[in-house]
Structure formats: C-alpha cells, structure tokens
Amino acid sequence: MSTPGLSAETEASRASRRGGEGLGARLSDLLWRRPALLLALLLGPPLLWLGVVYLGSLFALLAQSFFSIDEFTGQIRREFTLKTYGELLTPANLDIIRRTVQTAALVTVTAAVIAFPIAYYAARYARGRWKAVFYLGVMLPLWSSYLVKVYSWKLILAKEGILNWAFGKLGLTWALEAYLSLPGVGGNSLSTSPTGTFLVFVYVWLPFMILPIQASLERVPASMLEASGDLGARPAQTFRHVILPLAFPGVIAGSIFTFSLTLGDYIIPQIIGTSARFIGQAVYQHQGTAGNIPLAAAFAVVPIAIMGLYLWWAKRRGAFDAL
Amino acid sequence: MPAAVTFRNVSRHFGAVRAVDDVTVEIAEGEFFAMLGPSGSGKTTCLRLVAGFEQPTAGEIAVFGQNMAGVPPYRRPVNTVFQDYALFPHLNVRDNVAYGLMIAGRGRAERHRAAEAALELVQLPGYGDRKPGQLSGGQRQRVALARALVLEPRVLLLDEPLGALDLKLREQMQEELKALQRKLGITFVFVTHDQGEALSMADRVAVFNQGRIAQVGAPSDVYDRPATPFVADFVGSSNVLPPEVTGRLAGRRLPASLRPELVRILPPGAAGSLATARVISTQFHGAVTRVHLSMDGLDLAALLPRGARVPEEGAAVGLSWDPDDLHLMDGT
Fold it and tell me: Which residue among A285, B9, B264, B309 is least packed, with the fewest CB closer than 10 Å?
C-alpha cells in the first residue's frame, strides 16, 4: 500500500517521462490534435512553389504565345492574336517540329526495346549483390554531368574516335562509309549525323526507361507467370498476354520521360548532329538572340500539347488501368 | 490402367536442403488425394513437380503413365489452383477463366460459353465482367478454380486453395470442392497443412515430414493407426507414449498413440482404472472440455464430452481406455 501523496508524485513523474512538457512536446501535441495543420505545413511550401511560381510562369509563357511581334520595331504587341501560331506552320518551322517528334518517338521505342530485357532480368533474376550491381550500373551514368557525357559521346563518335577506329580494325570502314552516305541518317561522321544525335539521346535517357519498367515488373508475382504456363501458354505467349500488359504502365511511364526529355532538349542536337534544329534549339534562339518571345512561347507549347495528346492516348489504351 | 500420378523415388534438393527426399506414391484416377504436412515438409514442392514448375533432382514422375521428364508445364495434362490464386489483374473474370482456351486458339463465342459454364459450376454465374480486384477472397478462389477446370484437366492440383479464407467460408468451400470432385470425377491432388481439411475431404492422405512421406492411407487409417509419433501428433492431437510407458502398460516397448477422446476419466481407485494421474488444468472448448493431466510426469490430454463431470484442478483421478485404442507404432 502507498500513501496518496506518494502515488500522486508517481503519477506526475510518469506524466513527465511520457512525452515531457517542453515546447517540442507541446508542438507535437498540437499537431497530433490537428492533423490538417500538419498536412498544411507539409504540403504548403511545395504547393506554393509548384502552384504559384511554376504554374504561374507557365501561364505567363502561354499568354506570351498569343501575342505577336511587330516586324518593324521588334516590339512585342500585347494583343490577342493567333498569328504567332500561324508562323509555326511555315515549312521551316514544321520541319523542326517533325524532326523533333520523329526523333523523340524513335528514341522512345528504341529505349523501350533495349530497356525491357535489362529491367526483366533485374526484376526476375537479380538477387542480392547482383541487384546492387544493376542499380549501380543503371544509376552510375546519372552521377556524372550531362555535358560531360555528351562531350564524351562526341569524342566516341568523331571521325578520329574509337568507333571509327574499331570499324577500321575490323575492316568494316566501308560499311560505316556506306551507312553515312545514306541521306537522312548519314553525314560527314557519326558525330555530325542524325544517327549520332539519336544514339546519344538513347544513351542519356535509357535509365529513365529501365527503372519504371523494372518497378512494374517487380510487382508481377512469379505465380502469375506460372499460372499462365500452367494454362498452356508458351513463354512467348505468356510474355505477350501477361508480362507485357502488366509492364505496360511502366513502359508508358518510361516513355513519358524519354519522349518529353527528347522533345525539350536543346543541348544534345547542338553538340552532336547536323545543323538542322530541334524544338528546344528554336525556343532557345527565338527567346535569346532573335528576341521573338511570342514565337519562342508558341514553340514551347508544342511539346506540352504533344505530351497532352500522348497521355490522353495512353489513358485510352488502358495504360493506367493496372495502377 | 496406369495411375493418374506416379512418383517413383522422386527427390528434389535445393543445394543442401532435401525438400523432397525419395518419395514414391501412386495416386489413382478419380481419387481425392491430400498431401498433408507442416510448412517446409515438401508437400508443395511435390505438387510443383507434378505441375512442372520444378524438376526432380532424381526419380521419375509420370502422369497417366507418361513420363513427365523434360515436359514443360504448358504441355502437361494437369492444371493448378494457386495458393494466391494468381488471377490476371488486367483481365476481367471471363477472360481470366477463358485464358487457357484463348491460348488454345478457340473462338471468342466458344470461349465465352465455356467460361460462363465454368463460372456456373463454381456458383459465380454472371460475374464475367468484373475485375479480380472487385472480388472477395472466396470469389477469387472460385474464379481460380473455374479457370483451371475450364480446360477439363484429368488431374487438378490445388495448392492450399482454402488457406486464405476465413473459417466459415473454408468449411463451406470444403464441402463444395468435395461435391465438385465427385461430380466431375477427376483426380484432385490437394496440398494442405490443415489436418482437419485433409481428413474431411480426402479419399487418401499422404502425411509429409521433412521431405518424406511418413504415412499414406485413408483418413480413418491415418487417424486410428498412425505409423509414427510424428503422424500421431500432427494428425489430430494425440498422446504419444514413450516406449517405456507403453512397455509398462501394454507389455511391448514401442511408442504408442492414445487419442484424447478415447481416454476415460474415473474416480481415483475405481475398478477398471489402468493408471492414475493428476489434473493440471481444464479448458472449456464448447462441444468438449479438454483436461490436461500429468501421469507420473508425462503430459496427457483427455477430452470430455458435454455433460460429463469435469474433475477439479489438482485432483487425483484414475484413467482407463480400451486396450485396442492404445495404438502401437512400429514405423520410424
């Protein structure tokens, strides 16, 4: 038996041990009682940043695209007009858009084809140490500067580069020459050909394709593949009817990265490839040296519109159903 | 007439682990065969060997006399119901059930007819348009069953199919599965760790322990005449008496099994009492009361039916049983 005084003391000491009474403790209590306040504190700053600063600038940009430039004075005329969008339809500008979209599509498809087996191996077979090697191998290129990678590729693809040297040693210089003489894909050397631009794009964006596909394949239990085989499907049929549909959201997620990154890039086509421009370069030049902000804005809307259409198509194809 | 499934000295080793160790057994056509054992006893590996997901390290598996060595899963005349059901989440119920027929190249109309018939068989008519994610566990179980049955396999493999269901549903599915098997007349190979399930459903039970079959027989055989102390303990609960005690009580030095429900509790010193014991505790289980006894330091259990007088804890009591009920086990 204890005296009432003693037991009250015990109560108090227990209360102070549990949680305490400091400022931090009182803050914890307040946030525990008001979860909405905690949510506001957590989401407020990023929402302010994304919502006001980012979306605000985006809308400012969009608004600019409905203005036009006065040919005589070079001043921006702040009146609503679709004239600037009309300029996008000149053959030269259409050519830029066509080239960019075509390259982005080709890069995306190629990256998906290369990424799938790698992602599949990592998701199904790699365990422990090999899994670590996989992640390291995929992420390592992301650790070095993008410019360093692009310039390394310039060296690799150059006429004096290692690829030309390798073709020479293998006695295949004639094949490379024949390829480079093809119109549309060839050029003086690989580093000044559309093929070079394409190769570097595929290399630089590949990790963004591998990781989402791998994540989606990780979620397919082995029993599902066994069930397919059990029901009579050959491995190729299981791939077609089970693996591919279930990995499709991953492929779409990856393609959103590779496609939009290629659409907006202006460094790679500037360093590697022909002098023919991509959308990103056009935007860069129009808002910079040319001082034609409305046309730059209209060009910038093109990738946004294309991505919107692409996502709409992907949704209709059921790409997000399995999410 | 060859057996539906034959295991001939089958072993499956994973590195140093002998998951399946020299198993030989024949499963007859039309039989409901249960593979019973604790987890890691090799029963699921045996099922996977028949399905073709694992290859035996040694020995031979035949289905209807045809050697399955080198035959991939998609060419085997068996179908499997998976423990996690493994329904395809991107397909609706109808396309899940019709998957095997689609692979076999049957036309859409025929596929849908067969899928609907299979869904009716498992009492899910009209569920074809739902997605697996919209179904309850019991319904998914039925879809998995329909998907395997739609291909009319001669052998159906079931890997703990009721393990994820709650008790009421499990009991209902047990009855339905048994009825279905009788109706279709095909061979069911059923893996479970639930001895009650195995005893109530199967025509024959194989009890697995550490990769080997400890005993094969009809449920009543396995229950009444367990071959080894492991079987006695795992199938139902039993009092396993060590050889010394059996020697004193029955005159032969062998381990013996004495089912708790066959132990009678008498007043101390009553006529016909074969042994004396002390009551340690009693537990009320509804239909029965379980009495925990100590007989010279040996723990024993007895089950008293409803209405029987329950002795006080700590009381000394006499025990008796039918001499035939003390089952001597000469297996290893």
Answer: B309
- Within this chain, do residues B70 and B108 fall inside the same structural domain, yes or no? yes
Chosen from A231, A240, A243, A320 to mutate, greatest number of chain B CBs within 10 A:
A231
Residue type, B290: R
| Higher-scoring residue by pLDDT: A66, A187 | A66
Chain centroid, CA A193 distance in Å: 24
Q: How far is CA B234 from CA A27, B25, B39, B109, in A?
A: 56, 20, 12, 49
Residue B241, strand partner residues: B256
Among B233, B252, B268, the domain boundary falls at B233
ipTM of the complex model = 0.85
pLDDT grade, residue A14 (50/70/90)? low
Kindly state the average pLDDT of the residues B25-31: 94
Which CATH number belongs to the domain containing residue B142 in this structure? 3.40.50.300
Tokens representing A266 are: 């202006």
Tokens representing A31 are 């946030």
Residue B250 shares a structural domain with residue B226: no
Do B155 and B35 belong to one domain? yes
- Please report residues of B whose CB lies closer than 8 A to that of A228: 88, 99
Contacts of B44 in chain A (CB under 8 A): none
d(CA B285, CA B304): 10
Do B114 and B28 share a domain, yes or no? yes
- Cβ burial of A251 (10 Å; 0-12, 13-18, 19+) is buried
To the nearest whole Å, the CA of A126 is away from the closest chain B CA by 18
Q: What is the pLDDT of residue A1?
A: 43
- Residue B47 contacts residue B124 (beta carbons within 8 Å): no
Average the pLDDT over B139-159 and give the result: 93
Contact between residue A238 and residue B82 where contact means Cβ atoms under 8 Å apart: no
What is the CATH number for B317?
2.40.50.140
The answer to whether residues B199 and B285 belong to one domain is: no
Same domain, B195 and B135: yes
Give the nearest partner residue to A246 out of B90, B104, B151, using CB atoms.
B90
User: How many domains does chain B contain in total?
Assistant: 2
- Contact assessment for residue B314 and residue B281, using Cβ atoms and an 8 Å cutoff: no
Q: Are residues B274 and B190 in the same domain?
A: no
| Most A-contacting residue of B45, B47, B75, B80 (CB-CB within 10 A), to test interface | B80
Contact A226 B53 (CB under 8 A): yes
Report the residue from A226, A241, A322 with minimal CB separation from B86. A226
Domain range holding B156?
5-233
B60/B146 same-domain check: yes
* B105 shares contact with chain A (CB less than 8 Å): no
Q: What is the pLDDT of residue B111?
A: 94
pLDDT band at B85 (very low <50, low <70, confident <90, very high): very high
End of a domain among B233, B251, B278?
B233
- Interval A66-121: pLDDT, tens: 888 877 777 777 878 888 888 888 888 889 999 999 999 999 999 999 999 999 99
Phi, psi values for residue A4, rounded to 5°? -55, -40
pLDDT cut 90: percent of chain B above it: 63
Q: Is the pLDDT of residue A2 over 50?
A: no
